Amino acid sequence: MLTFVLNALRARNVPWTIVARESGVPYQTLKKIGAGVTENPGVMHVQALFDYFHTRGACSDSPASKEAA
Questions:
Q1: Which of 59, 2, 12 has its CA nearest to residue 36?
Q2: What's the pLDDT tens digit per position in 13-67?
Q3: Do the beta carbons of residue 14 and residue 21 sit within 8 Å?
Q4: pTM for the whole thing?
Q5: Could you give the CA distance from residue 1 to residue 21 in angstroms, rounded to a whole number?
Q6: Where are the alpha helices (DSSP H) in 1-69?
Q7: Residue 5 burial by CB count (10 A; 0-12/13-18/19+): exposed, middle or buried?
Q8: What is the C-alpha separation between 9 and 20, in angstroms, rounded?
């Protein structure tokens, strides 16, 4: 799940300010996760980001987008 979130963040398909606002994860926390500063982020933040990206198909590595291909 963390790998999926990191890939989605690094793809930068959606501005991080929007991701933070819509996922409920504070922007500063999101920046630390995306930059790798936080090596072991809390499960609640990772879950919120996973849900955000997974439901929006914002990452090309998502299982939904692979099924559609």
A1: 2
A2: 889 999 999 999 999 999 999 998 988 999 999 999 999 998 887 555 444 444 3
A3: no
A4: 0.77
A5: 20
A6: 2-11, 16-23, 27-35, 43-56, 63-68
A7: buried
A8: 11
